[in-house]
Amino acid sequence: MKHKKYSDEFKQQVVDECREVGNASLVARCYQVSKHTAYSWLRKARENGSVKSLPQSKEEKYPTVVDRLEKLSEENDMLKKLLAEKELVD
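The structure corresponding to this sequence follows.
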């Protein structure tokens, strides 16, 4: 069976609608894609924050990983502060 390529915009549209409707199988049927494909796009979006694939070459991958690490570090620091404030109030 031949693999069909879908644009990142199409994938994002399906993922957004799946989240909005709450039924990936129904949305997949409307867009005429496999429910397994829709679920994999949802999982990828949840794990990566986007349906776009991470770059495969080291030159492209390194800045992406560094940016993501910085973002996660900032989010972690913010959550630590919120938890500390909550502990002080209780």
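Helices lie at 8-21, 24-31, 35-48, 58-89.
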